[in-house]
Specification:
This protein has a seven-stranded mixed sheet with strand order 4-12-11-10-9-5-6, with helices on both faces. A four-stranded antiparallel sheet has the order 13-14-17-16. The chain has helices spanning 6-23, 36-42, 66-81, 93-104, 129-132, 151-161, 179-188, 201-205, 242-256, 264-299, 327-336, 365-369, 374-389, 394-405, 426-430; strands spanning 25-26, 53-54, 57-58, 85-87, 110-113, 136-139, 142-143, 148-149, 165-168, 192-196, 219-223, 234-238, 303-304, 316-320, 339-340, 342-344, 359-363. It is globular and about 60 Å long. By secondary structure, it is of the alpha/beta class. The protein is built from 15 helices and 17 strands. The chain folds into two domains: 23-32 and 280-405, Aspartate Aminotransferase, domain 1 (Alpha-Beta Complex), CATH 3.90.1150.10; 39-271, Aspartate Aminotransferase, domain 2 (3-Layer(aba) Sandwich).
Length: 431
């Protein structure tokens, strides 16, 4: 077993921090960064504490302050997504999905999910949470022209299958799923619509993406750290049904979590307040950046999916890099150039291609958070071309990528320019 000294441990942490926050252009579609203000709220003694149960009715003492913060976070998150009820305890979007799926379906019941080609998350499938709960996955038909659920065929399937619930939303996700178009059919058979907004929560809050609860969904689930730039975690909101919310709430704890990572809640509150103030400007810039990056990549010679539909309406851009050696090779070459992306299956890839798929999934939300706009997207597309088409040495390009990134190290759309009084941090108290 390798032995590390304490100095080596902290040196590795420092190297990671500098590399990812100063030297690289991060285009992972499922990541983001908190503001410094939210980070201050994240680092507290709440990290050490338990608060099982609900505010005011805990199984532990010592919770009087989290009992104020947790309802506040629930209330603000509900307001941001137009829900009547919300719960910020889940430690991930997948945990949110698990609690909801368990309430909506029993072993052997059927759930309709968005097609895998349309970006369904693993938690929606028989390989993830649905399978673990013994609920049968039924995929809605896919329309390659719209790169989305085939509405007419899906309505017929809903009427025939009569699923307990329908899941929309996804992880490879360029265009909104047709919630409004399927809502009447779902209601006619007594089926609930669950919308997994993990990737697009920030766009929904900022008004740049359809709010599924306004279009007929019953429940929204999400991660809190993708286009919504908060701490890693999850939440869910229920439009109206108080009894349904209570049932899910009682299932999240104790079935799927014990303690719910209390330090995440103050940081989430800061981020929610920032999104309330700056979310519209941020979300709109994210979408503009994604579209401009897609256009610039196409102009540079890449095959960018969705051209006939305007490339994207989300934070994501998807490109086919088979001509550039495939997704695995392309992602590694870009990492050597200090550009971080992930390889990804494309709609026409077989599942067996998972280790070396045809595509790359790109997200612009974090670089937008650091202040990049359309002009910078053109520069980034130029770096892609140099590495993957012109075949320049990635390590030579890496130094110029880092020089470019050096101009974008401050978080925008945040409270970081305000003076925040933050007394008695943990380090002050234990020095």
């Amino acid at each position: 077993m390798t032995s590390f000294s304490l100095d080596e441990l902290f040196n590795l942490i420092s190297n990671h921090n500098k590399w990812r926050l100063r030297y690289t252009v991060n285009l992972i579609a499922s990541e983001n960064v908190m503001s410094r203000t939210a980070w201050l709220a994240y680092i507290s003694d709440f990290e050490h504490r338990y608060a099982e149960g609900k505010p005011g009715k805990r199984y532990y003492e010592g919770t009087k302050y989290i009992d104020i913060l947790e309802p506040w976070a629930n209330e603000l998150m509900a307001k941001l997504v137009h829900a009547k009820h919300a719960d910020v305890r889940p430690t991930s979007g997948t945990i949110s999905n698990a609690g909801i799926f368990r309430i909506l379906g029993d072993v052997g019941d059927k759930a309709l999910i968005a097609p895998v080609q349309a970006g369904a998350h693993v938690s929606h499938t028989k390989y993830g949470t649905l399978g673990a709960l013994g609920i049968e996955q039924v995929e809605m038909p896919y329309d390659s022209e719209s790169m989305n659920v085939d509405v007419d065929k899906a309505i017929k399937m809903i009427e025939e299958v009569k699923p307990k619930f329908i899941v929309m939303g996804g992880s490879v996700y360029l265009f909104p799923h047709p919630v409004r178009e399927l809502a009447d059919a779902a209601k006619s058979v007594g089926s609930r619509i669950v919308y997994d907004a993990a990737h697009v929560l920030g766009l929904i809050v900022g008004g740049a993406w359809r709010n599924p609860l306004d279009h007929g969904a019953d429940i929204i689930t999400a991660s809190t750290h993708k286009t919504f730039p908060g701490p890693q975690g999850g939440f869910y909101g229920v439009r109206e049904d108080e009894e349904l919310f209570k049932a899910i709430y009682k299932t999240i704890f104790p079935y799927f979590l014990s303690n719910h990572h209390l330090h995440h809640i103050p940081a989430l509150l800061v981020t929610a307040m920032e999104m309330e103030s700056f979310g519209e400007a941020y979300a709109n810039q994210v979408v503009r950046n994604a579209r401009r990056l897609a256009e610039a990549l196409a102009e540079a010679g890449f095959k960018v999916l969705g051209e006939h539909l305007g490339y994207t309406r989300s934070h994501q851009v998807v490109i086919d890099v088979r001509k550039q050696g495939g997704g695995h090779k392309a992602a590694k070459m870009l990492q050597d150039a200090n550009i971080i992306v992930n390889k990804n299956l494309l709609p026409y890839d077989p599942p067996t291609a998972i280790k070396d798929p045809s595509g790359l999934r790109i997200g612009v939300q974090e670089m937008t958070r650091f202040g990049m706009k359309e002009d910078e997207m053109e520069v980034i597309a130029g770096f892609f071309k140099e590495v993957l088409i012109d075949k320049k040495d990635p390590k030579e390009v890496a130094s110029r990528v880092s020089e470019f990134r050096a101009g974008f190290t401050s978080i925008k759309y945040s409270f970081d320019d305000r003076k925040v009084e933050f007394h008695d941090t943990v380090l002050d108290l234990i020095k």
